[in-house]
Amino acid sequence: MKIKSILIANRGEIAVRVIQTAKIMGISTWVIKTSKEPYAYYLSEADNIIDFTEQLADIPEFLDIENIIKAAKEHNIDAIHPGYGFLAESPVFASRCAEEGLVFIGPSSDAIYRMGNKTIAKQLAREHKVPLLEGSQGNIETPEEALKMAKKIGFPVILKAASGGGGRGMRIVEYEKDVQKMFKMASSEAEKAFGDPSVFIEKYVRNPRHIEFQVFGDKHGNIIHLGERECSVQRKHQKLLEESPSAALTPELRERMGKAAINIAKSVNYYSAGTVEFLLDEKSDFYFMEMNTRIQVEHPVTEMVTGLDLIEWQILVAQDEVLPLKQKDVKINGWAIEYRINAEDVQAGFSPSLGSVEKISYPRSKNIRIDSGVVQGSLITPYFDSMIAKLIVHGETREKAISYSANALKKLWIKGLKTTIPFCKAVLANKNFRKGKYDTSFLTSEMKTTYFVDPDEEMLAAFFATYDFVRELDSEEKRVVDFDKGKNMAPWVLKKRLRSL
Amino acid sequence: MNSQNGKTTKDKFIACTPSNKKFEVSNPLSEKVKVKGKKLDLRVIEDPEGFSYIIYKNKKYQVDILEKNQNKYTVTINGVWYSFTIETPISYKRRKTLSKNGSSSKIEVINAPMPGKILDVMVEENSEIKQGEPLFILEAMKMQNEIVSNVSGRITKVNIKQNDSVMKDDVMLEIEKS
């Protein structure tokens, strides 16, 4: 079945990205307008808009499965693309689409469910002989049990609070003698923090790299991979920069990891775009973490090195077509790096920086790609995530990609907001990053400052502030005194004027 | 208007950082501009699209006024921000005397930097806090933001509790600076 219309149940840059491909394929696009950003850029790019601004549901618009399905049916739309985010990984949404005769552009509901459930996913990996971080299958009750388990897994191990997160209730144990003591500590910490003392044990990998494989399948049983992405530059598990390929992989390792990724996908008869995440340790041993059953934010680096359009492939697969390429036809050309430009203040612990985009200046070149959901005048609101654009740079080699990137970042300017651009520059300036030697501890252990500063900048900033201040004083003086306006005059200006009368 | 008076006030200024680092700037609008007594060979360019640049030592710097309120400025240079208070030598002296006499406020009011939800409050009334220690966690934009204290002192007031929703600039806490 040929898809003639798509409802994009998402916003921002990914909505714009899907619209771009749909246009090329001659598919008409529909998007949802919300009261939170009724003037957003993605709305102006779409062919049709469905107005949700009058909806007074308790659930946010893009999580409201039934309303979205109702809207798609009302307008006779063929298919729904969920972008990334909640709907993309909701087995309920995928199955509701199927029930209502709508094409869900993504994998099967069953694949989403099984990969979304960590216990099932790990079980599948084990059955298909994909290495994974071994651990206790359930919670550990006693210190003795903890010791027995730790010996079985091999040191170092990590104790984690079952209902935990954010590092609390976590203990890394290096030696046998510490297990029982650490178990008691982790358990009491978990009790205090989460009201639940349950703890489980896992193999601990010190400073791993985060490597993920892009896989693609069709409904005819073909599954291939499109190489890896290196996503080790992270802050609190948020990816900030991604590259493809990874400097850590040899062709031999790539082949082994790619096969493992395909095996994981095959275990759930996967079709559409998916990502299999691995941890890679210093000895080049890799462990399956999870599979993301959707298109990823960082998919452009894969597109840049393979020359493919992954959104197009998603649509083709949803139309029951066969994958356009076989594994042996996939060629990786050169190197691509993606920089996430977020509205965040890197000088204040990456806290969100709200406001409006005053002006944008993009670097332009045929090896530069920018995916963005904002234009001049767009507002950055607290309702959605802080990503404003992605800068993707391609080079024939990693060195060239880095040097082109440095130039591109110098020219890129999103005026009116604090952004992560100075952070990206600081990453590029790091010696070990340039050598490709980094892991997920990079940001905390390698980067002395999280933003790039030229030594003369503070002095120039002091000059410019003074320059603007004096210019303002000058223009104030030149103006004729308007008594009505005087009422609203700043007291210090008024005082100065009175003095000079 | 007394032009001579106007001229002398335009000669010399002091840009002060929050940590009291001083930059003396003379003749900022002329070619004889000096910073910290050193003559600088620089140019300010405003392009037709509304972007401003400083050219200095053959390098081009993106500059922008991010915020200004009377004589308080936040300027970005190549995306990195700096805060200054611009003073004349006379107002600088006055401010210094004032702060020496301790008439400036000892109470630091912590406002919500953005709207969001309070996930955790790490302090209580009367607890002592050091600069850089966490005060509370505010969830906004799908992120947990740890708000840290920029002063040391004693908490005198806590207006928030876990799961409160707050608007931007709501008063969260008051700290008596030590």
Cα separation of the termini of chain A = 82 Å
Please give the largest β-sheet of chain B: 9 strands, antiparallel
Helical percent range of chain A?
25-40%
Global morphology of chain B: globular
CA-atom Rg of chain A in angstroms = 26 Å
Poorly predicted segments of chain B: 1-9
Largest contact between chains:
A-B, 53 and 61 residues
Judged by helices, strands and strand pairing, the structural class of chain A is alpha+beta
Number of E strands of chain A = 22
Percentage of residues in strands of chain B: over 45%
Count of beta strands of chain B: 17
List the helices and strands and how they pair.
The complex is a heterodimer of chains A (501) and B (178).
Chain A: E1 5-8, H1 12-24, E2 28-33, H2 41-45, E3 48-51, H3 65-74, E4 79-81, H4 91-99, E5 103-104, H5 109-116, H6 118-127, H7 143-153, E6 157-161, E7 171-173, H8 179-194, E8 199-203, E9 209-217, E10 223-235, E11 238-244, H9 251-266, E12 272-280, E13 286-292, H10 299-306, H11 310-318, E14 335-342, E15 344-345, E16 351-352, E17 355-356, E18 359-361, E19 368-372, E20 379-380, E21 387-395, H12 398-411, E22 413-415, H13 421-429, H14 431-435, H15 442-446, H16 457-478, H17 483-486, H18 491-499
Parallel strand pairs in A: 1-2, 1-4, 2-3, 4-5
Antiparallel strand pairs in A: 6-7, 6-8, 9-10, 9-12, 10-11, 11-14, 12-13, 14-21, 15-16, 17-20, 18-22, 19-21
Chain B: H1 3-11, E1 12-16, E2 22-26, E3 34-35, E4 38-39, E5 42-46, E6 52-56, E7 59-69, E8 72-77, E9 80-87, H2 89-100, E10 107-111, E11 116-121, E12 128-129, E13 134-140, E14 143-148, E15 153-158, E16 165-166, E17 171-177
Antiparallel strand pairs in B: 1-2, 1-9, 2-3, 3-4, 5-6, 6-7, 7-8, 8-9, 10-17, 11-13, 11-16, 12-15, 13-14, 15-17
